[in-house]
């Protein structure tokens, strides 16, 4: 019996060792960025585009909708008049948050400064979650809870999966099929 178990253990370990060697350094980062692009890229880019006004100047003048999404309680307190909100620090927070919502996902998908962009996006998701819960006063059903047996919670369940996906990129990087990899190879080639 020990020989049979030993055979299956070696078979199992051998099979998955081959799979790991074949995919080492490229598949995990590429797959994580692909899933991020397929599930979240369009959502965040569309959301970010609603936060900017028309033309080039609009890139530096967030819309009232941007203020309402990022600073809901403050906007309500000033009757949705953005001129009553000081640029420092609140307008700057809205501007940086709006830019982060578009730049970080694009950087992640392209695989450029992926670890930093993914860490920044984890912070972004945390801030977004805080604003959704405290500023937009989401109900308990929408927030959900982890370990409740119901994977449909928009905040607890979905965002936990988003953060895990981003954590993979923070810890493992974008992989060999990325701009990060090309930039590192270029940099080291320049040094020697």
From TrEMBL:
The chain crosses the membrane at residues 25-45, 52-70, 90-112, 119-138, 160-184. It comes from the Bacteria. Keywords: Membrane, Transmembrane, Transmembrane helix. InterPro entries: DoxX-like_oxidoreductase. This is DoxX family membrane protein. One of its GO terms (cellular component) is plasma membrane.
